[in-house]
Design goal:
This protein is α/β, with parallel strands linked by helices. It has helices at 3-12, 32-37, 57-68, 101-116, 137-142, 152-164, 184-193, 207-216, 225-228; strands at 17-22, 45-48, 73-75, 89-95, 121-129, 169-173, 198-201, 220-223. It has one domain: FMN-linked oxidoreductases (TIM Barrel). Helix 7 links the parallel strand 6 (169-173) and strand 7 (198-201). It is globular and about 45 Å long. The structure holds SN-glycerol-1-phosphate. The site of SN-glycerol-1-phosphate has 14 residues, from strand 8 and helix 9.
Length: 234
């Protein structure tokens, strides 16, 4: 079974998934053992990626992660340099909330030669940036304007346009370190109209926020910062 199929199956069975995001820029090998011991037992995936990562660093980090845990490692790349053959799968992201061709298609085209040298499973993913109450690095780096949380219909339409154009997953992103995560209302509305799994991430720092996202319909939640700095609240 492929990694996408596993996510689809879990979504179908309403089994909630949890990805812990590792930003290769912030990963410290010396603290890795402790970090992996602290992971919640229900962690289902490790995502690896960041907005700006030094070339070659992703590969080192993926290899290190593989020595500490058996969870599937899925790349969540901020640019075409962050592709490593040591990972298991790749979220082939297109920033469909933005209107910057660089992140709609240019980075994707530039990643192809690298991808062809790997056996990564490619998962077409529509990436939707939503205002998280502060300017996040994804907003800066992508030079795109996030969709306002109140524009629920526009968010739903963007997600549906993604589904119609063949994306297998939709990722609702408030940005790493967002002040406010994607609201349950948005998740609910998107989930209601879509028939592909929905990923939610950005600014989730507590069990309560995690549960609210799940209850609203998130199939997979991504948490980075709160686990990275040990501030996640039970
Ligand atoms: C960012 O959605 C992820 O791309 C996770 O965000 O670091 O705020 O958990 P946080």
């Amino acid at each position: 079974q492929g990694y996408l199929e596993e996510i689809q199956q879990a979504a179908y069975e309403n089994r909630k998934l949890l990805a812990v995001l590792i930003d290769p820029d912030k990963f410290e090998e010396g603290k890795a053992s402790y970090f992996f011991q602290q992971l919640p037992p229900n962690t289902s995936h490790i995502f690896v990626g960041g907005s700006t990562v030094e070339e070659g660093r992703t590969c080192e980090v993926v290899k290190a992660v593989k020595t500490f845990c058996d969870l599937p490692v899925i790349l969540f790349p901020g640019d075409h340099n962050q592709i490593s053959s040591h990972a298991d799968a790749l979220l082939f992201l297109s920033l469909i909330s933005g209107r910057n061709p660089e992140f709609l298609i240019e980075q994707q085209v530039r990643s192809v030669e690298r991808i062809r040298k790997t056996e990564l499973e490619i998962i077409p993913t529509g990436y939707i940036l939503i205002d998280g109450g502060r300017e996040t690095s994804v907003q800066k780096v992508s030079n795109t304007i996030p969709l306002a949380q109140k524009d629920i219909q526009q968010i739903v339409n963007t997600a549906l346009a993604g589904q119609y154009s063949g994306k297998e997953l939709i990722y609702l992103e408030a940005g790493s370190g967002a002040k406010m995560p994607v609201s349950p209302e948005i998740i609910k509305a998107v989930k209601k109209d879509l028939n592909i799994p929905v990923i939610v991430g950005g600014g989730i720092r507590s069990t309560e926020q995690l549960q609210l996202s799940y209850e609203a319909g998130a199939d997979l939640v991504v948490i980075g910062t709160a686990f990275e700095n040990g501030s996640f609240r039970d």
